[in-house]
Amino acid sequence: MMANLFSSFDPSTNWNTSINWLSTLIGILIIPTSFWLIPSRLNMLWMKITSSLHKEFKTLIGPKIKGATLMFISLFSLILFNNFLGLFPYIFTSTSHMSLTLSLALPLWLSFMLFGWINNTIHMFAHLVPQGTPPVLMPFMVCIETISNIIRPGTLAIRLSANMIAGHLLMTLLGNTGNLMSIYMINLLLITQILLLVLESAVAIIQSYVFAVLSTLYSSEVN
Fold first, then answer.
1. Angle (deg, nearest 10), helices 152-176 and 183-220
2. What pTM was estimated for this model as a whole?
3. For 48, 121, 160, 174, which has the most beta carbons within 10 A of its beta carbon?
4. Is residue 111 helix, strand or coil?
């Protein structure tokens, strides 16, 4: 039962190769639509979303770093495409694996830390002790802030993976009980599955947004 339950998260195929990871790049197929002479409604909606994100990220980062919003909007797009595509049948959800989410979070965090400690050392030391902290509590605050900084890539990766896994597992569990139900209960199950699908669509958007915004906030702390 458990093997069947987690089989939807298995990246391997019938040839014992991890070809399912290629589904991470399916979102690239959507890019050519932005170059159409007459933009579609979906394209206009996407341009409005990216424009809003650009303004928000630019406010968070500040004017010191030029072009950084492009990186974080690209990160948001990659995660959003993979989260959404994972809701379709027979498409592998790569963002449910720590190997992908940690590969996104760890290099970002490491680059922020290296940049901050090399170029703004005094500023980074000042972040370890919040303003107004009593002298007695300063050693403890340094330890707490250091630990919170170290676990940031882990929390980013685990938050995204756990949310993707939880929704998929719930839908799989409910779907596996369909053959044991009466015709009336199946109708109720279908309504429940549709509502769960809507909820998962919202989670897909929210989690990609949270990942991008937190990455932006972490980058703003090292400026």
1. 170
2. 0.83
3. 160
4. helix
